[in-house]
């Protein structure tokens, strides 16, 4: 099998109904509902090879979750071709579900009121996993994710981080070749995120597990994925390596200045009005960030002018982050970075 995910011209439309006002309008709606067609996914094509770890990102409403639901067979496409693990997810649902693992960060596949290990045993029966395969594979998963102390606890008594580690283990009971992760680290603390990332890297290397990851936390993408797909208004606007994304659209630096006294943006813009600089407010008080290109003379000029005009308590320089690049793409559109 050349591609574990093979999608061509995939489209999903929904009907959005509207209500007319008043008693007369409500009566008319009984016989003649008004609606408009909303296109959530607009003729996208996507091919993923076995063993790839792909980041699938976009703003809220871009169509990420709708795509995942079609790839997992939850929704039927309006049109287009979709093959996952060589099967049609919607039409061959029973066979298909045995070949994938799914983790939705805001939904649980574990039973709320029973112990975690009882949920695991039920899923073992559902996926028809032998005792030997279960003990061998899940022993490693449970140990790596450090969830052995949680097995006797009801799911409702687990913290969010504990539950997400158990959700991930549950999705891997049958050791599927393909894993869908939809916001798996939402709301988790740094240590739990690191543990989950390391585990995902390990199963990818050990079992060649293909992973499709949707998340708003781009640090997850940077830590795990070499390839990134960016979705906007139901269309794929970028599909390529993370390295190329940085090379082509991240050609610049950010200089962060921490000022001793409050400073206004128009004052900084006056200082650098003849230079290719964009100023933005930092997260901390009295902090401003200068976005500049990689030309040494521009960087030097910005630093020289700001330091000469204002009192600085701290200064940091860093490459433009993936998050900043993606934000710029959404704000300005994806176009030739040289333009």
From TrEMBL:
Name of the protein in question: ATP-binding cassette domain-containing protein
Superkingdom of origin organism: Bacteria
Residue span, ABC transporter domain: 25-258
Native source organism of the sequence: Calidifontibacillus erzurumensis
SMART domains linked: AAA
InterPro entries attached to this UniProt entry: AAA+_ATPase, ABC_transporter-like_ATP-bd, ABC_transporter_ATP-binding, P-loop_NTPase
SUPFAM superfamilies given in the database record: P-loop containing nucleoside triphosphate hydrolases
Any single Pfam family the record assigns to this protein: ABC_tran
Keywords: ATP-binding, Nucleotide-binding, Transport
Listed GO MF terms: ATP binding; ATP hydrolysis activity
């Amino acid at each position: 099998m050349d591609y574990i995910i093979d999608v061509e011209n995939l489209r999903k439309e929904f009907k959005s109904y509207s209500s007319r006002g008043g008693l007369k309008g409500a009566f008319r709606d009984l016989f003649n509902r008004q609606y408009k067609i909303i296109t959530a996914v607009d003729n996208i094509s996507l091919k993923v090879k076995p063993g790839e770890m792909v980041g699938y990102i976009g703003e809220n409403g871009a169509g990420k979750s709708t795509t995942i639901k079609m790839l997992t067979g939850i929704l039927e496409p309006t049109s287009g071709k979709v093959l996952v693990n060589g099967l049609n997810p919607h039409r061959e649902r029973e066979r298909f579900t045995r070949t994938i693992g799914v983790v939705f960060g805001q939904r649980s596949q574990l039973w709320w009121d029973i112990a975690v290990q009882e949920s695991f045993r039920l899923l073992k029966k559902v996926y028809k996993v032998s005792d030997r395969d279960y003990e061998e594979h899940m022993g490693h998963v449970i140990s790596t994710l450090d969830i052995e102390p949680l097995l006797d606890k009801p799911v409702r008594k687990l913290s969010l981080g504990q539950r997400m580690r158990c959700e991930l283990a549950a999705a891997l009971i049958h050791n599927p070749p393909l894993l869908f992760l939809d916001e798996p680290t939402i709301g988790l603390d740094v240590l739990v995120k690191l543990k989950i990332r390391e585990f995902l890297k390990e199963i990818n290397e050990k079992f060649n597990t293909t992973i499709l990851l949707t998340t708003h936390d781009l640090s997850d993408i940077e830590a795990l994925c070499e390839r990134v797909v960016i979705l906007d208004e139901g269309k794929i606007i970028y599909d390529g390596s993370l390295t190329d994304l940085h090379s082509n659209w991240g050609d610049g630096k950010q200089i962060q200045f921490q000022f001793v006294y409050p400073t206004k943006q128009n004052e900084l813009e006056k200082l650098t009005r003849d230079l290719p600089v964009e100023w933005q407010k930092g997260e901390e008080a009295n902090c401003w960030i200068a976005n500049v290109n990689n030309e040494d003379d521009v960087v030097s000029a910005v630093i020289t002018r700001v330091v000469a005009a204002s009192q600085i308590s701290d200064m940091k320089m860093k490459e433009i982050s993936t998050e900043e690049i993606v934000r710029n793409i959404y704000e300005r559109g994806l176009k030739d970075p040289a333009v």
